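Lab meeting notes turned into a lecture example. A postdoc, R.K., suggested we walk through two folding results consecutively so the class can see how the record format repeats. The first protein's sequence and structure tokens come next.
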Amino acid sequence: MPKNVFTVRLGELAEVPGSPYAYWAPKSLRELFQKYPPLDRDVAGQKDKPKIADVKVGLQTSDDLRFARFWWEVDVDNIATSKEETHYKKWVPFVKAGKAFYQNILLVVNWQNNGKEIKNYRNADGKLLSRPQNEDYYFREGLACELGHEMSEAIRKGRLAFFLIPKGCIFGHKLNGVFCKYSLLSILGWLTSAIIKSIVETGGGSGSGTTSDIAGIPIHPEVPNSEDLINLTKEAYWLLREWDTGNETSTQFIMPWILQVWRGFDRNWKPVTGHPLARDFEWSEFESAKEIRGEGKKWSGEVSLIALANECVEREKKLRKRIEEIQKAIDEEVYRIYGISDEDRKLIEEELSGVGIEESESDGDKSNSGEAEEEQLDIMPLEEHIKRLLSYLALEVMKEDADGIVPTSDMFIEGRKELGLATRVIGKLKEEFGEGNLHRIEAEINQTLGMSIEEWFEKEFFNYHTTLYRLRPIIWQLSSEKFRQGRGNPAFTCFIYWRKLDEDTIPKVRQLYLKPVLNAVKAEVDQLSNEVQKVEGREKSKFEKRLDEAIKIYEELKLLDEALESLLKPHSLKVSSRSEWVKEKVNEIVSNGYKPNRDYGVRVNIEPLKQAKVVAKAAERVKG
């Protein structure tokens, strides 16, 4: 029979609940809906079947800008992981999205006093705007994947991106949350298998991403207790979680990947974030994990950041390859459990993926190339590892500084030398890798980034940091760049640290850091003015040129000083935001002169600085 021609009796289509027009599905796939109970009989409308799991959607705040934060914006000691803790802690880990198997939980939500503020979030007419749905499932361990378009996209790409929700979290309304008394690991592996994507398409026609799509999946009774599924899924979860210990914005962060390679694995390493979701972290015993983390190995090559970064790349390739192997093994196990024949499996994998035999063969040739494999595995490039190292060291510098204010470059303050951020980071590189290796390391960084460390912190770091921290940066670069006349570097820049931001920060920047520079330039202007009066001819022209540039710098610094002074006076601002709360809180913190309130988050507190034009350009991306 020609390809893409299907012969199906109408009665066979009725084997699937709702009788979707799934003419392309093999009979063995349609029969599953008759043989086995749905994952959630209640949502699927099959009350006569056994109860396996509950599929639920979660909390809708209706104003995440008001009620949610990234975890690094808040005090981790104020994060609760149980209903009882919310009586004295404000924030709870908030799950809104994720990738297959493991997801770093980036957000927290205001659930103080069991969600009192969210539960009373109403409009001017008294209508309740929030939807705190299915509260009985909050703080419970479960599984989740995204609803709607994101789920449809996952289906289109070949499998559902289910992941584990750790105990102690609240999940969002755009997630399919799955909760059951059986092993979550076996259910998780089963839900990420290729056949589930095909089953969802068979049962829902288009796989449009609804809760009923998941609830209606027929589950074989062998699935919940499959040791193979449990072990494979556990390995995938822990491999991904352990790798996340090198990610600076992860709740599980220990140190950047380069330092993990350089220092050599130590089983005593623990996450340094203090986040409650990291308390149960332990290193696994999987052989694949030991190989990826280099257990038992100590770096013995020459001190080279490029070599270390290349080792990081190779380790991640091993990780991604092993995850693919695990996923294929899970697929094999689920096909076996359901008893899908090789012939039907081939049809499922070709027809339901939309890939014909000829196309799949040609793609197979392409996928064998190293370039295609690396693209498919989405490996972090070498230069990113070096940037992550510099970012980590910069954060360490900011944490250690007494007031959280660090100039970009070295400067003299009240007769003493204040080391800039770049100099302090270079100092940490020397401490880590040894003074004798510093020259080579600086040369490698220059080669990789295309500029010196000093230039990178001056020109690129804040933009990079803002991206890394999801447009909610915790290191801010104050700058005179928007007052600069013509081209060239800004006359003044410094960095301030979010966790030490208070109402004294801006006055300190102005009086202790900017004023000395301003006074020095003013003195230079006065001196050059006197020189111009004394000389003639070519010498006069040379001094006039220098004077003109000094005046421009002085005016730039003076405008910055005036902007900071205005920021500290009572004022009001027109704020562009989809949240009325953001507009209200921005004006609250400037009504008596800029008095930051870190409880309101980065978005609110950086807005006055943006409007005063005293932060570097990358801050313009902090919106919402």
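The second example is placed directly after the first for contrast:
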Amino acid sequence: MSKNKKSLNSLQLYKRLLTYTLPYKWVFVVAILGMIITAAVQPALAALMKPLLDAGFIEKDPETIRQLPPLIVGLFLISGIGQFTGQYAMGWIGRKIIFDIRNIIFSHIMSLPTAFHDNNASGILISKVIYDIEQIAHAATKALFVFVKDSLTIIGLVAWMLYLNWQLTLGIFLVTPFLALFVRFMSTRFRKTSRGVQKSMGGISNVTQEAIEGHKIVKSFGAQDFEAENFRVVNEKNRRQATRRVAVAAVSTPVPEILASIMIAAVLYYALRLSEQGQFSPGQFISYFSALGIMMNPAKRLTKVNEIIQQGLAAAESVFKVIDEPLENDDGSKVLKQVEGRVEYRNVCFTYPGHKELVLDDLSFSIKPGQTIALVGASGSGKSTVASLLPRFYNCDSGSILLDGIDIRELTLASLREQVSLVSQEIILFNDTITNNIAYGSTGAVDESRVLKASKAAHVDEFAQSLPDKYDTLVGEKGVRLSGGQRQRIAIARALYKNSPILVLDEATSALDAESEKYVQDAMLKLMKNKTTLIIAHRLSTIESANTILVLDKGRVIESGTHKALLEQSGTYAKLYKNNFAGLS
């Protein structure tokens, strides 16, 4: 987040927030008209009190008695129409703002660098999308509706009161500076407590998401009480923060009321003295105090609206912080049309953001079109990092990665990633049909024949046909309704459907049983045919046919060769291979 955005004050934040209402300015105009109508009726009702008392009750004027009842009904009818129009229009704008900002922040999050997702819990980001944006919309619409309508009402009432007795009305404004100071103080407190509530809501969302997604692990380790205690802690933080906000809100109401009561008492005393001197008729007196009484509710709402605005501004800070995060560096301009599939890592060095240790240290190797290169090594040797750099999930610190002789940083991200299919150990399936999971990411209509062809090659068809809805079967969240082997085969079918010239297999069979592995390995062989393939292997039996095997240690290649040649060297690979099979026996 840039420093200039970090230093935005309340006014700048609110101005930025209101820019989201600009596309709906004509609806906003309708809302303002409704507010003006509603606001205009209030002083009119107060003004009616004068003829009601003077001409109606005291003088008993029959014309006044006949006209006032339908006039009062008409005013309330006009007020109701204005209230409905203004409130509905602002509510409509509010939902549109929520819709727009949610779309913006979701699209933005999807385009942020992988490093951002590494450093930000998904539950907290979800809380921003769901909870914080609701608070923003309230500040931009609900608060604005109350502010405009009630401010106009107060202006109209004050104008009428000035007309009745300007000296008396000016005395009311003696209280205004004290109210302004109090509101300013409360604004700071509201913003601070609202930030705390939003942060604690992110904690609740994060703990809940992790526990629900990992419910099997929680149960298998008997950790229900542990997770319940974790939730209790974050829930207690939320309760404390919310209670502080309630306390601030509770204080914000009686203090202005006490100040208002002092003002009313002073005005009442002065008005009664004027009445004694014959300068204030009973009708003027009642009309004046009716206007003052009507003004109390709008004034009270205006002090409360500050709470909504400060909640919204705290939420806006949180949301805009994400929106202002720089997107993935996509400054490449070249677009690949015909790809041979020649890949070269040239003196690549890489360190993960926030860490000091080199993960890859001057790494160099190349893969010819159609060749298969396998990477092996102990955990932490840099194998998966090599795979992450090829589609530019991260950018190398120095050195370069070339595709058909072109530095991948010169390519647009879309063009580069179109050439690469990734199948990893962690299979992500979406809660959709098998067909849509296989055709995931493709533009236009799904090619059913391609889906079937990919499914048969990946051995998906064998189990899909036995399901009640066949290819229209919903796989559940993360594919929970399928076995690990079935999920892996769908992932391979997805890569087959994409049909990219470059394939990255990141420990794609490490978690499978022997029978599932047999199916998956056969599917992988079909997938790898005529493709440039980079395999990160856990089970070394899966890479015996690779053209070249590279053994990594601390980000460097320490051995390379064919499976047979490396075994004959009796070096690191031979030891890994021996231990690998010893672990399987």
